[in-house]
């Protein structure tokens, strides 16, 4: 797809990590591309492979981070590369049951990328998901007397990466859940190896907060001031239509300088505040929405980012009745599903529960993910689509 793309708009802002990983990666890539374009430096001077490896547990946000990076790069480097293309490659689309075919498909892919990179005005960002399928350890395969396509595919992958080393207008971003199973030569070629782990409790708070605020914004949940004011603020019907004038007056009791310290307050009157702001402004009000969500987030420590984004939907579908439901009701339901998840469920089981419950309530379209078939026909179709995209960029 061409970038920047509306489908990826706002994706960068949803990225929440314990450390500023997105900003670090963006700055590093832009800086290295700039140095690669410096006429004072030759290819032999640059000890840099334009290959980024994002590794970590499933559901930690690696693929989302890669897509957000691609969108940001297209914007930041628009003056250098007027056109940016993004290609997403599913590793299983390059695997074949026919001996020797997988290596050929990998070779064709990189030939197409090399062909597209001839255009100096084009930036090509390629995402290869679950790259361990293509970069399996050759040493382990040899020890196991594995004569499958694993070794051939890895060899072709390494050759393709080496061809692109002198092409600063191509950025390869690979993701993996199993870096320990990957070939050492591949790992050694990575210009940046970034671990993306499970969110800590502060990150968990921000992830869940963003989902709940979206539910409030869309009208599926209404926000009351009961918890934040430390007092009853009226009936459900009254609290559903809180005016921009009444909210600051209620919170003036908490902080007289609230509006000046939070310039975006008038835009977020009916939303859960950021954790740092809530701790500063509402610390002497123990029974607040933020405090309740902070407590829930501590219980959710260790859950993946993908799971955290799904749990508010599961809570809404399983343990609430009214639509819209109150925020207090949703938080009570959320605490319940977090405890259930932390005690017994795996991420895969949670995804199944979410899909089942949301289907019953008619919200399945909001969160269902597209899944791919394992049939040979679909794999061939995916690979054909990838090669067609690359051909349009000036490849094969």
Automatic annotation (TrEMBL):
This is P-loop containing nucleoside triphosphate hydrolase protein. Keywords: ATP-binding, Hydrolase, Meiosis, Nucleotide-binding. Residues 238-265, 340-379 are annotated as: Disordered. One of its GO terms (molecular function) is ATP binding. Residues 350-360 have a biased composition (Basic and acidic residues). Residues 238-249 have a biased composition (Low complexity). InterPro entries: AAA+_ATPase (IPR003593), ATPase_AAA_core (IPR003959), ATPase_AAA_CS (IPR003960), P-loop_NTPase (IPR027417), Pch2-like (IPR044539), Pch2_C (IPR058249). It comes from Massariosphaeria phaeospora. Residues 48-200 form the AAA+ ATPase domain. PANTHER family: PACHYTENE CHECKPOINT PROTEIN 2 (PTHR45991), PACHYTENE CHECKPOINT PROTEIN 2 HOMOLOG (PTHR45991:SF1). It comes from the Eukaryota. GO terms for cellular component: chromosome; nucleus. One of its GO terms (biological process) is reciprocal meiotic recombination. Pfam families: AAA, AAA_lid_TRIP13_C. Belongs to the AAA ATPase family. PCH2 subfamily.
